[in-house]
Batch of 2 targets.
Target 1
Amino acid sequence: MMITETFVASDPKSAYAQAVEKYGTDIELTSAKQIKEADGSLLCEVSVTVPKERFMEAMNSGQLMSSDSILKEQDTQEVTQALQALEREHDNRDGHKGATILKKLVDESNINSYVENQNEEDAENGVEEDEEDLLAELNELKTQLQELREGLSDEDVTSAKQELRELLFAKNLTLDWIDSVLEEIENKLHIYDTKEKLIEYIQKRMKDQLIVKSEDMSKKKIVMLVGPTGVGKTTSIAKLAARYSYLMDKPYKVALVNLDTYKVGAIEQLEHYANIMQIEHVTISSAKLFETKLREFEAYDIVLIDTAGMSPFDTQKFIKTIEYINVDVGREIDINLVLSATVKYEDLIDIYNNFSFLNINSILVSKFDETKHFGPLLSFLLLHDLPLSYFSIGQDVPYDLMVADKNYLIAQFNGDLDEG
Ligand SMILES: Nc1nc2c(ncn2[C@@H]2O[C@H](COP(=O)(O)OP(=O)(O)O)[C@@H](O)[C@H]2O)c(=O)[nH]1
Ligand SMILES: [Mg+2]
């Protein structure tokens, strides 16, 4: 038996996301409509059906338990991390300037015991002349020790760090990320004493954190490009089609599927490329046909799917997209979100949220050639840990495309830093 449940949110994606959060992706979307509240605001209502057992399961709120245990795990992790940081700090102090201080401290304690001994002896012998000298020496040592302690927060290093922090922020990296990275080296600042050294560390951290998806041609693939209108989906599909069928170690068998029946000229645009390259192509307007065609294309190495751009309130396009991706084609569809490098950070976040109801597998960055400023894109990637697939670096089909490369991206960012 199936149960129908309705979810309401400000836009269809969020409403659908609620359903997925509750029941997982294995649900059927039965309707989505816009509703007008009494105050005139627009809401979206999405209805899904789920098997009764699944409904009961969710009712019995296993979810609460699991989110609780996730919290505990996070807490433990945080505590462990804090402990590790403390240990590092400790090691570091012992290992470096701390060692000098430690030595002085040992010296000082020797003098203390010497003074004590002397005092005893003096009391016994009634000798007082040397005592003043010793006390003076001890005081001097104390002053030196104090100076050394203050020396630990090396002003030069701190200002190099501050300068870099401001520069990175000006280049649109988020303060959250900058500070979390600078914090990691807080106790090793003597190693990163110049701006250049600090930048090296920042680069290393970016490199560690960025993920690149390797271009694995060993398996047959269905790749779908999604993203806002005009971002370069169709152009990228044409470049990819050419790459796979003509520009690699061997010719792969490619088919093009166009789901964009909205944009004027979209059908002709893809047909144009497909005809030049003599590649199998088809335009599709129903989920049923989508299923039939994808099954027909089973023998192809790569099926590339072009889609229509979508904004948060495109309810119709949203329902259609959901219908398409829920079609059982017997294989997984690799969903690539196309993001333009020219877009500002807040917009990247919005676009990602807008499309996140589709399980985004990777990011294709377009319009790499149109900006020198990669801070916003990097900030986005460092926040979301999404794998990069390709970079589109110009309008020229098929050549302006490269397999995503961390070093290339970081080098572009550095070029921007050098300009100050
Ligand atoms: N400069 C530059 N232009 C691009 C790039 N990719 C696409 N374009 C241009 O952007 C415009 C829209 O591209 P299109 O593929 O139709 O976008 P779609 O709406 O996402 O399919 C076209 O004029 C393309 O030539 C790129 O990497 N660099
Ligand atoms: Mg297009």
Note: The first strand starts at residue 2 and ends at 9.
Target 2
Amino acid sequence: VSEPILVKARAGDYRVHLGPGLLGDLGRILTSEGIRGRLALVSDPDVRAHFGATARGSLTAASFVVHDFDLPPGERAKTMQVAESVCSQLIGNGFTREDCIVALGGGSVGDLAGFVAATYHRGVPLVQVPTTVLAQVDSSIGGKVAVDHPMGKNLIGAFHPPRVVVSDTDTLATLPRRQRWSGLAEVVKVALIADAAFFSSLETELVDFGEGALSAGVVARIVEQAARIKVGVVSEDERESGRRLTLNFGHTIGHAIEATAGYCRLTHGEAVVAGMKGAIAISAQLGALPHEAATRASKLLGRFPLAADVGPLDRASVLATALRDKKADASGLRFIILNAIGQAELTSSLPTRLLEAGIDVALSSLASRPA
Ligand SMILES: NC(=O)c1ccc[n+]([C@@H]2O[C@H](COP(=O)([O-])OP(=O)(O)OC[C@H]3O[C@@H](n4cnc5c(N)ncnc54)[C@H](O)[C@@H]3O)[C@@H](O)[C@H]2O)c1
Ligand SMILES: [Zn+2]
């Protein structure tokens, strides 16, 4: 087991414990990290069925008093109504600022539990115990928490870094194939923006990871490498002024496709894969990314199985959504491009016609690939 990863945050530094088999050690880790008080164990029925007993057993063995809170599975957890209902139960059980919220599940559980932790009693300690690839490499790290509004995703939220993150990579073994591949989009993303050697290793290991054919040790190494890159980026730039923006690579077009398609037809990762293909085409057309690198990057992204049932998407509405999302300011449309595999950069005045061309590449990749 390797050393925990240290995340620097204004509200207090915290550690990411990551590796196989950590769930059985959860109680001991939280004790060693100074977590006190009663625990609100927030999860969903599917995750609880797989890991609730192990997590709970470990916590109670370490003398924690644990109260269970169940959320609807997936994105449906991320509403103000669900947040209010969790708060009502916390109030009903007399939870105070001395107590702690533990999020056991994917990014949806983490975002909702984190939003409650950020706001209940003006903020209570939060522990993230992520159980999806996406949550272990991305959403549990960095302190962003949010709920959705009928007008859009993640519109109501806060920065509320966790006190500690415990990522048991063995939990990924029960993930449905589509969820595993979806989280791998963010793994390829951080390799593309920050680590060429990591990208090379993914060229041999990505498909086996997606298909669930890797050993627990290799899964842990890949997840750890991706998490370390995200930690490095957010530690440098917690509030998204410069470097953190490079984590949005593939997301301008990806988010616009997701919103246009409707959030249930495509997973986030599927939309981001398409968005990265578009962003690579744009990087190449700008002359920033050499042709050979663009081909290599697109080839790895071509290994992702994409959803078959997306149907035709209207290019004009994807463009309009992307432009609205970017709020093109006086300096022009800001967009993350690649200069090389492993190196990203913010451009500040992307011509709209290039964005259109990138959207066309992204949309045709969705249309042309059966699952
Ligand atoms: N806060 C951030 O910085 C950040 C970053 C990226 C994404 N997000 C958010 O994360 C959310 C998506 O999270 P997600 O992709 O983890 O999906 P998810 O949390 O919606 O979970 C998807 C499904 O997987 C199930 N599941 C979770 N872990 C499992 C396991 N180990 N085995 C079997 N089933 C399991 C869940 O029950 C659920 O039905 C989105 O709402 C997105 O906005 C947040
Ligand atoms: Zn993302």
Note: Residues 44, 46-47, 50, 73-75, 78, 105-109, 111, 131-132, 134-135, 138-139, 142, 144-145, 153-154, 171-172, 174-175, 179, 182, 268 surround nicotinamide-adenine-dinucleotide (ligand 1) (CB under 6 Å).
